[in-house]
Amino acid sequence: MTTVEDVPAGANDARGRVAELHAIREQVRRGPSERATEAQRAKGKLTARERIELLLDEGSFNEVEPLRRHRATGFGLEAKKPYTDGVITGWGTVHGRTVFTYAHDFRIFGGALGEAHATKIHKIMDMAIQAGAPLVSLNDGAGARIQEGVSALAGYGGIFQRNTKASGVIPQISVMLGPCAGGAAYSPALTDFVFMVRETSQMFITGPDVVRAVTGEEITQNGLGGADVHAETSGVAHFAYDDEATCLEEVRYLLSLLPANNRENPPTVPCEDPADRSGDALLDLVPADGNRPYDMRKVIEEIVDDGEFLEVHERWATNIICALSRLDGRVVGIIANQPQSLAGVLDIEASEKAARFVQMCDAFNIPIVTLLDVPGFLPGVDQEHGGIIRHGAKLLYAYCNATVPRISLVLRKAYGGAYIVMDSQSIGADLTYAWPTNEIAVMGAEGAANVIFRKQIAEADDSEAMRVRMVKEYKSELMHPYYAAERGLVDDVIDPAETRHTLIRALEMLRTKHADLPARKHGNPPQ
């Protein structure tokens, strides 16, 4: 490895010193060696600088502390003091807006974190918080640098502390592009969004070898903590992609939907999709029969600008949809039940997914639109023993605590506690609308009739005919489309074709909404 001592010194004048500087900078840019670069590419991975080039606007990157080297001794470290110490830090722009980033360089110490390495990350995190700009971490590291002992562990503590300090202040995005094991995995878990790349990125607290030793289970790294596992099973990853280029392009897209910090609104873009565009297709997309499934994504496509939206946690807790999109050029967060999956019921995972999304939207001044078609909470021993009460309460708490503009729309059924939890007027929704196909009630008509008219049905000569008559009576009395509107629990019943225009006009009115929470250090949300 070349060092500054190996760089030929020119004449002892300014030109010679500048030539020396450029030689060192070129060395920093190239990295440790061609062999290390080839090894990185052999794994199907880009180098840290190539990743930064894909993330940021061309030519916008400004590096911080490229000449930093570690000061550790022992175990041969004193003979290996590469520039950057295995992490590249700095800032640039994405779509012209400032973004801070750090990228582990796996070619240097396997991207392992030591004291100098951690100090660089701490500095760039502090700069991002102070500047009020998003932070994107490009993770590809082997964990703590064992040769530096507890100093390396303390470095992680400093990162976690700053992740927490920045939470809800600036957007934090973690992009997993290689291994992330042990305590290192907690930093991505503390951030707002986690991206992963299939086959090359993994996250786990204890690796396959430890799992095998302790439990006897045989499993691969990808089977234990790969992108698909975390995108579908654990919910740790919000997004998973096949290659790094696509992944980083989607990070750029996400950043275009987020504000720089919690004191700003998300960026608005010109919109050529007419605000008053009629959504006649909605009349055919959603069956009037509440028992028939349909794809809620198609409803969202019909309502939002140009049919475009970015779904968060697309493959985890699929019975609820959380997405970022735009209405008339302004960013909105959309939460919607998905009748195609578990009939759109709320369960433990759906409640957690939606609660975190509501909190994120509220933190970053993103209005929330909730589309309801929910038959209730998922019944069952596993759900009750798994804590559906406290998990469902997380979603309730998140909505009640949110001060951004909130609009809810009941498409079809909205039953029981799930109706209340999904941003009903009673928990603070600013405006509530319903389609003429809505059914808002404590429970479905069949179940309600069986409870209320149990005795009459049992004593009737034709119990089935009596049950049918009682169901019809209950529907006509308590579940007709205008029952909630007549009692002021729904602000209006609207033509589905007018949904887009209605939402846009309501959001425009609510744009200047101001709401204060009671003075407190912080709440104590359900866990």
TrEMBL record:
Entry keyword annotation includes NAD: no
Instruction: Tell me the ranges covered by the CoA carboxyltransferase C-terminal domain, including all copies.
Output: 274-509
Ligase keyword on record: yes
Gene Ontology molecular function, alphabetical: acetyl-CoA carboxylase activity; propionyl-CoA carboxylase activity
Top-level EC class as recorded in UniProt: ligase
Q: Name one GO biological process term.
A: carbon fixation
Cite the entry's keywords alphabetically: Ligase
Q: Which GO terms describe its cellular component?
A: acetyl-CoA carboxylase complex
Give its E.C. classification number.
6.4.1.3
Q: What domain of life is recorded for the organism?
A: Bacteria
Domain CoA carboxyltransferase N-terminal per the UniProt entry, residue ranges: 14-270
Q: Which family, according to the similarity comment? A: Belongs to the AccD/PCCB family.
Q: Kindly provide the name given to this protein in its UniProt entry.
A: Acyl-CoA carboxylase subunit beta
Species for this entry: Streptomyces platensis
